[in-house]
Structures are given as structure tokens and as C-alpha cells.
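@channel sequence for tomorrow's demo:
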Amino acid sequence: MRRIEEPMKEFEPDCCAKGAPKGGQRCVLDFKRWADSLGIPLKSAERLSDCWRPGRYIPGNVIFYQGHQPLGIYFVRTGSVKLVRAEGTGRQRIIRVIQAPSVLGERSLIADLPYAAAGIALEDSCVCFIETARFQKLWDADPALSRFFARLLASKLGDADEAGTDLALRTIRERVAKFIITLEGASKAPGAAVSLGMSRQELAEFMGTSPEAICRTFSELAAKGLISTQGRLVRILDRARLHAAAGLTFINRSAAVCHRRLPGA
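C-alpha cells (generated this afternoon):
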């Protein structure tokens, strides 16, 4: 991990493309659409849109460091961010991957605690930032926003419990298959090739296994016709069988895809 903190680079996201009035109405509307996709109430999004500051991070840029006190809250608009925790022995481990759209650093800010892990961009990402003082004013003045973050924290706590269960009870094959399914779901582009966003080494760290086991599992899934791979791109070829490989059931009703855990899984 780099020890020199990367400065936030000014960035013109898609809404501020050439010909668009930077900081104008299109920029605000774009942020509202993003907030809506995340589930932030519309009026709360309008207040947030007055405070956000966009930054562009390239792969490897550090957004915040483990042990540092939070200076604000981050909203991941595009791309993905890995949370990396360093142990006292010097070892580092990816504990979570944050896919857009999402919120980053909210637990440490709300609890007034140092970051438990470093946030590092996995790919080109647009990350908006709101300073602590401004966010606290919004928190105090907007009950709907407070309720949103309460639901968000509860949801992430559930995700953490599920991740711990997966690590303890699921095989590496099941974990890899489930990761691919989740990745495609986050992309909102069923059938399209999606980027893993990580090297095989990083995937191994994230899933608590070896790079050899990761490569072997991807090869097995590809050989059975469940997926196809090209570099870091992966495409689901047989969604029903991949769900079965993950220990999940697959239901397709009126083109709507959903899944649930198998009994006893």
C-alpha cells in the first residue's frame, strides 16, 4: 500500500461532459439520479447535491487510510473501492469490495472512530465527498436522511454477518460463484461481461484462499460452460447452473431474476 496519500483530483463526471454547465442543473440532476438508484430520499438528495465535491481516483489511489480520523463521508458514484485492513504482523487483507452506487466511510464518521481499514480505488472511480460539518448539519435537519443511514448501517451489518457465514461454511467454489452473481447484479446489466475489478491475488485475499485455488475454480466453472472469462472480464453463460454452484436457487418469473439461499446452506 502506498504511504503517500493521493490528493483528490478534480474530475468532470459524465454529467459535466464537454458542453455541459459544470456545477449547473445537469450536474445536480445527475447526482439526484444516482442518489435515487441508491435509495436516498429525493428531498435529501437535493440537500446533498448542494454539498458534494466530486473526485476522480485511478486504480491504487488511496481515498483514506486505516487509523485516520474521518474528515467526511464518501459517495461512490462509479467504479469500485476495496477496503484493506493491515494486521500488526504486516499482512494486509481485502475485507470488502464496495461497488457503485454506495456510501463509504459512514460507520467511522457516525461513530466518531478512526477508519478500521484503508479505502483504495480498484478501478477508475468517481467518488463524491461531503465534509463532516456539512454532513452533520444535514443529519440534524433531515430525519429522512438519518433513517436512510440507519437502514444502510443495518443492511451492511447483515452483509457482514453473511460474509462471515460464507467464509465459514461455503466452499471456495460456492464463494466464487456467488461473488460472480453478486457482481453481475451490481452492474445492472444481465448477460453483459462485467469486470472483476481485482487481480487473482486480490480475489484470493478477499476470499481467504490462495491464488491457485481462485484460478482453478474459474477454470472449472468455465470448462463446465457456466461462465466465460477474458482477462478480468467475466460473463455468465448459464445463470441457473451458476446459482446451483453457489448453493442458491434460481427463479425466473416474467423475466425477473431472483435468488434465495437453499435450505441448510
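heads up for whoever presents: The longest strand covers residues 92-99.
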